[in-house]
Specification:
This protein is α/β, with parallel strands linked by helices. The protein contains 14 helices and 21 strands. Helix 1 packs antiparallel against helix 2 and helix 2 crosses helix 3. The longest helix has 18 residues.
């Protein structure tokens, strides 16, 4: 029999407007680090890194990229799962005004070649287990690109580091490099010692990151997102999804950081709010369930199929999930029936929160609306984030249709992308600026 949902306590309305910083992602991270220097910023395989230590790591890697010749506006590809090096390098590149080009490490070689060529990347950072796949691509690029290979071993707690050389991941990272073309991450960092960095001068409208999405032509498009876009998303998510304060709360960061959901909600949002990212580079339903029980995260973002699979996980059948403060579904449609099943499961296991659905596209980082915490209309995708407006228009028009008519959904707000990378025709088709002066996205 389905469990009856307990009444939810409404903690206050979501503000219609927020104040957004006019600087970079790293500037906002540094602001958080000054506020909570001793709190953990992220934890990886049981090893925690404080905000103070994270800032040191970012500065050290920034010096290394500067020594390599990376300058403001340059692109560097990060071909990494959710690892400490991935988080460090993302903010490191932003620190020096460079752009992080985020791609899936399991992409086929030809796809990686496409991403490197389109972005004109000066370097690519990946794990040593993927380096052998990427190394042959360097000769096919139109310009030099440095391959930097990181290892997970140094990021593990001491007791796990002892056994790391025996693991499958470590063995996969042993590859032939007779010409010495691959730069090991440790040597890369060491080369930056003594480098004097210029002051951080990032601006809100500077491109900070390139994410990828399939286009109407079937060819993947690079989506250029600004500092403002990603910072605004984080502040909106905290306001609409967590009541305005997540200091010290843990986020189970399993959604990959090369997607807007994983990067914007799973990584940048907790680091802006003083929370802790529990970095998970790889998981399955059973390992995810064990993480829930062991780490007791306060917030868990995920796709509907993941939550559906968790309903049958044997590890959770007698679990106490009262530690949850937010469960967020995105990336695909959450059917009313599945929402009822998930909610019943959550409430039966002590949770006081239902699953909340968001809607968005990578062209606005990720979510641009969210179902409220205290009530939800069945089948609804919620209400827009602060400073975000929706309208429905006829195809290729800008005037809103009257209520009840069917058309295309358009949105405007501080998270709307700068445009598609080197693709003015697709950009013009997706972005409109009608007489109201706002920039409207028609994804």
């Amino acid at each position: 029999m389905a469990q009856t949902a307990p009444p939810l306590r409404f903690t206050g309305s979501v503000p219609a407007h927020l104040t957004y910083p006019q600087g970079s992602l790293t500037a906002l991270l540094l602001q958080t680090a000054r506020r909570v220097p001793r709190l953990p910023a992220y934890s990886f395989m049981g090893r925690a890194t404080t905000y103070k230590a994270l800032v040191r790591r970012v500065e050290r890697a920034a010096a290394a990229f500067w020594r390599l010749g990376v300058r403001p506006g340059d692109r560097v590809t990060l071909c990494l799962p959710n690892t400490p090096q991935g988080v460090d390098c993302f903010y490191t590149l932003n620190r020096i005004g460079a752009v992080a080009n985020m791609i899936h490490p399991l992409s086929a070689p030809e796809e990686i070649l496409f991403y490197l060529t389109l972005s004109r990347s000066k370097a690519i950072v990946t794990l040593d287990s993927f380096a052998e796949k990427i190394l042959p691509l360097l000769d096919r690029l139109p310009a030099p690109c440095t391959l930097i290979a990181a290892s997970l071993g140094p990021e593990l707690p001491a007791y796990k580091r002892l056994f790391y050389p025996l693991t499958k991941t470590a063995r996969a990272g042993r590859f032939a490099d007779p010409a010495g073309r691959v730069v090991r991450y440790r040597a890369f960092l060491a080369a930056g010692r003594g480098v004097l960095l210029p002051p951080e001068r990032g601006r809100a409208q500077d491109c900070a990151v390139i994410l990828y999405s399939g286009g109407t032509t079937g060819v993947s498009k690079g989506i250029c997102l600004s500092n403002l876009n990603v910072n605004a998303l984080a502040l909106q998510t905290i306001a609409a999804g967590a009541g305005g304060d997540i200091t010290g709360n843990r986020m189970l960061s399993v959604m990959p950081m090369f997607h807007g959901f994983g990067l914007g909600v799973g990584i940048h949002t907790p680091l802006v709010g003083g929370g802790c990212c529990l970095l998970v580079p790889r998981f399955n339903v059973h390992s995810y369930a064990r993480l829930l029980l062991r780490k007791k995260p306060h917030f868990i973002p995920g796709v509907p199929t993941l939550f559906a699979a968790l309903l049958g996980a044997k590890e959770l059948q007698k679990a106490d999930l009262s530690f949850l403060k937010g469960v967020f579904a995105g990336g695909d449609h959450l059917t009313p029936e599945l929402k009822r099943q998930i909610d019943s499961f959550l409430f039966a296991h002590g949770s006081s929160v239902p699953v909340r659905e968001g809607y968005g596209t990578t062209e606005c980082v990720t979510a641009s609306c969210l179902t409220p915490a205290d009530h939800a209309k069945e089948g609804s995708i919620g209400i827009p984030y602060p400073d975000t407006l929706y309208t429905v228009t006829r195809p290729n028009e800008t005037d809103p249709l009257p209520p009840g008519e069917v058309g295309e959904l358009c949105l405007t707000g501080p998270t709307v992308m700068l445009g598609y990378l080197d693709d003015p025709a697709e950009t013009e088709a997706a972005l409109r600026r009608p007489a109201d002066g706002r920039l409207w996205l028609n994804p």
